[in-house]
Amino acid sequence: MAHESWVEIGWAVRGAFWGRGYPSELGRAALAFAFDTLGVRAVVSCTIRHNVRSRAVMERIGMRYAGEIRSRGLVEGLEGERDDAPYAVCVKDGPRRR
Length: 98
Ligand SMILES: CC(C)(COP(=O)(O)OP(=O)(O)OC[C@H]1O[C@@H](n2cnc3c(N)ncnc32)[C@H](O)[C@@H]1OP(=O)(O)O)[C@@H](O)C(=O)NCCC(=O)NCCS
Hints:
Elements: E1 6-8, H1 22-38, E2 42-48, H2 52-60, E3 64-74, E4 81-93
Parallel strand pairs: 1-2
Antiparallel strand pairs: 2-4, 3-4
The protein binds coenzyme A (COA).
């Protein structure tokens, strides 16, 4: 049921193109599409806790930190993937609709 009301967005850009604002532009476009075209009530974005660049994108496009979840992925300072890697979750609520 929850997935009928919200979607997840993310971004990835080749290293040569970092630092030019493209992922933030992608993120803003994704938020606009989710709220204006799909009409979802909320959008979430998750990234591994230590991915500071991705977390900066989330903040830059107006998403708020909502907490952490655990899932398979990389843990800072450890080799290989773990089942309980910490992911930061950010949320943006859509405009209220009648
Ligand atoms: C996460 C990722 C997409 C972030 O890329 P990014 O280029 O840092 O993100 P932005 O587009 O927001 O760029 C912001 C930087 O561009 C600068 N910038 C330059 N021109 C800009 C413009 N016109 N508009 C906005 N920012 C601009 C900003 O000042 C900022 O600089 P800073 O990092 O020195 O503070 C990138 O690191 C990546 O692809 N990583 C690998 C994949 C990944 O981890 N994806 C997320 C998985 S959850």
